[in-house]
Task: structure prediction
Amino acid sequence: MTANLKHALFCAFITLIISYPILGFDLKGRGTSVALEGVDISTSIGVLLAVVIVFVFQLYRDTIMGSVRQLPAINPLANREPMEQSKRLKLESILLTLMVIGAVIWPFIASRGAVDLATLVLIYIMLALGLNVVVGLAGLLDLGYVAFYAVGAYSFALLSQYFGISFWFALPIGAGLAALFGLVLGFPVLRLRGDYLAIVTLGFGEIIRILLNNMTSLTGGPNGIGGIPDPTLFGMEFSRLIKEEGNTSFHETFGIAYSGEHKVIFLYLIALVLAVITAVAIRRLMRMPVGRAWEALREDEIAAKSLGLSRTAVKLSAFTIGAFFAGFAGTVFASKQGFISPESFVFLESAIILAIVVLGGMGSQMGVILAAIAVTILPELAREFSEYRMLIFGAAMVLMMVWRPQGLMPMRRIHIELKRQE
Amino acid sequence: MLEVQNLSMRFGGLLAVDQVSLDVQEHEIVAIIGPNGAGKTTVFNCMSGFYKPTGGKILFEGNEIQGKPDYKISRLGLVRTFQHVRLFNRMTVVENLLVAQHRHLNTNLISGILKTPNYREREQKSLDRAAYWLDRVGLTEMANRDAGNLAYGQQRRLEIARCMVTEPKLLMLDEPAAGLNPAETKDLNQLIISLKEDYNVSVVLIEHDMSLVMDISDRINVINQGRPLASGTPDEIRRNDDVIKAYLGEA
Ligand SMILES: Nc1ncnc2c1ncn2[C@@H]1O[C@H](COP(=O)(O)OP(=O)(O)O)[C@@H](O)[C@H]1O
Ligand SMILES: [Mg+2]
Result:
């Protein structure tokens, strides 16, 4: 108890000396000089309250944390019997089909802003599913994932600017180029693991961003690239006036009134299709020899090599495939925004995508999808708190680590039925 | 089929293996024995490509393999287990066996994503092989458990099964009986003999359990402090004075 008391006093003290100078004083400009002023009494009370809370929490930390850990017991689903394999699969596929059908119908009844946000969610789902391959399955901590997203987006932007290439051609090219970058980055980091890998990939992400910022003649630098075309549907454009020779416009072809919503919905549907393709393709890969090789390398590199797995091939395939889907997402993002700049590809993006994977549950596709939805939508719902967005984010991460370290929906191993031996 | 000639391995100032030679013929079980720290595992590590030996040659089926990367050596059919079990703990037992068969399943990505008939057929074959070996080592009931949750003896057996699904020519076992109870050791004994008799695999074996070694080995090599001390049939080794003094006498 005395140890606890000491610790609690220490924490309270730290809270006081950190928060009081920051919150308790105000800098006021008076002409040319700056003066320090104490702020009103309510802030001081607030700081004091925080100190007391920290003190009490630390004093009874063990009891509190213990009860937090018991929370899952309140969850009605926590202690149920695991469902039978065949039943679960059936339920899962029905649920997924319903979800996809719902997702197709939904934009026609939702508001334009909501559909736009949903497109962003889908982009994050693609990104998180791709990063899940690298981090969740192959166990390679990649902090520069946003670089491949940027490569995809800039590929499309530059190709359309300089060569007038349309979305549909740029999509495979952007993804392919991103994959190529993944391959190229993969080589130097083959021997690295854990922290070292994280630092090198972090550096790589920053290098790409800084390059984009400084190659002003090519990329426009911090000004970015605008006028990125929208996707077309079999040569039909979604704008009021046709921009490109030879195209027709969507509303005229179908004889309906022009509406800006058509374009938003169309983009959403493209993102939806691509996200579904991403999910299905990666799901297949996970159950194929490559997927198992990724996990084997994560579990035990030495054993994997002793069984004839080439570390080079396995790691590069994970990097390349992860980057490929980031390129996909990047192309869609560029098309959705119509304008991109290096600002969209800062480290924070990498961190958010990684947070989605960790929150969702490493390796678990369902978990990652749910986490992507939560992480993108919640800040929008709580706009008043937008200043505290990062604070809430951090608190949520800490709580998750205590309560469910394996993530929202931890990965489940597939059950493999074997034929009986005679 | 395997010949190790004057193998040496130096770690800084320590000469862990000094001029060790041994050979393995087809259809043979060869044991390496010696006190702890004698350099037995280091010999294995050189043979399986984990270390690049500082001296000597290793010939497998007539080709020099010393210094080749580990995964290439294992693809030649020279597969090993580890002194401390190394399984893919968070993967299921079947998956452990499937990972090992990636070579038989070396299809391109597209045919896998599209599930072509050819791909399915090969996948089914490797599943059957996995099922066969699970049955062989008595782990069929555990097929879908995480490998990390198996009992120690089961993990040992799974590790051997994982080697066998790769259809090796030569199997290297590093202290396979360590930590097993007498009944399990007896099963292991039978399993190793059957690997040789029924599957035509040669075995190199590091082991401290003398009764097991004497029972199943065709020939024995004794290493002491990195240097070869004696080699011969179990009977010869049992009667060798040097060996009795250095090793058996102490035990
Ligand atoms: N990677 C290494 N670096 C330095 N010394 C090593 C290394 N591997 C083994 N050794 C040393 O080589 C000697 C032989 O070890 P080892 O082959 O594991 O013995 P055994 O398997 O016969 O018990 C020991 O003294 C050990 O400390
Ligand atoms: Mg050893």
Summary: Chain A has two domains: 2-72, 89-403. The pocket of magnesium ion (ligand 2) is lined by residues B 40-41, 83 (CB under 6 Å). The beta strands of chain A are 25-30, 33-38, 236-237, 248-249.
